[in-house]
Amino acid sequence: MNHSKYGDISQDMSSEDVALYSLTSLVFTLVNNSCVSTGVGLFGMIANALNMAVFYRQGLSSSINISFFFISISDTFTILFIQWANICFNPYIDNTRAPLFYAELYYITGGWPSGLCCRITLYITVYVTTERCLCILFPLKIKNMMTPTRTKAIIAFICVFNAVTLVPEYSSIYLDWYFNKVRNETILGVAFRSNRDQTQGVTWLLHVVLTVVGLFSVIVLTSVLVIHLRRQTKWRMKNSAENKLRPTLTSRDRKSVVLVVAVATFVVISYIPLTSVSLVTVFVSEFYIGGKLFQIFRDTWAMIMLVGMTNASANIFIYYGMISKYRQTFRELLCKKQ
């Protein structure tokens, strides 16, 4: 077995540069992790709890409600894991003198699980977009095609399939006690098995491929949906016998287009940075846990986590602003609590 040995980028810096880099990293961590990310996460947990309550109250008898309900669950776990990161990467956490290497502890207990939850959310979004496309393309058959039971089975498959991709990484790393020369004590951190060379980067590569495929699917399916809705709107306006129906139909179609475009935009904005940094991790060996660029790796992923946290917390605004039934149930819940 081999224990992780972190390289130090400061070895190539002057003493002044080291001091400036340390101060910058400290301020960044306190502002990004401890303040901004933590605050967004607390809001996100409340927002997703409300989302789950609304969809549960409406009933999990439709595929769209089931999908949004499980997206809220996945987003909640994403936020919890990132909040755990905010604790582990707090610059003053080592003052507790606990015999733990928190960065390594998080890598195993929170880093990959948070990535897993992000991908689950992405692929449930792919399913939702697919279901909406089929709903418009095959309106008379969709109820038989996308039943609640099938929706639950598909979401279960999404969860299991994405979880299996973590096997290569977890088969070669584990938590173990080892002597740390810097701290002059035995601490709990990451250890590598003998097969590390064969498995390193495999899970990262799978993560990148699946994320790219998911993003591409969302973009393509959303484009198909938008094009079809526009054609449908033009046809209705051209062939409608009653002119007074035109504004209503146009408004309904426009809201549907805006909804899917908003969802797709949030997904793309959130996952393009994640995919890009994952690609760097795959092809730059030092940009990794145990690598010379670990500090940059840590701070970069802190920013990615903030973006992911924001995406996981923002759906409540999309649902409330664009789904009238959600808005009605949401208000009923608040009135009931009061």
From TrEMBL:
It holds the Pfam family 7TM_GPCR_Srw. The keyword DNA damage does not apply. GO terms for molecular function: G protein-coupled peptide receptor activity. One of its GO terms (cellular component) is membrane. The chain crosses the membrane at residues 20-43, 64-85, 105-128, 149-167, 204-229, 256-289, 301-322. Its main location: membrane. The gene is LOC106058113. InterPro entries: 7TM_GPCR_serpentine_rcpt_Srw, GPCR-Ligand_Int, GPCR_Rhodpsn_7TM. This is Uncharacterized protein LOC106058113. It is found in: Membrane.
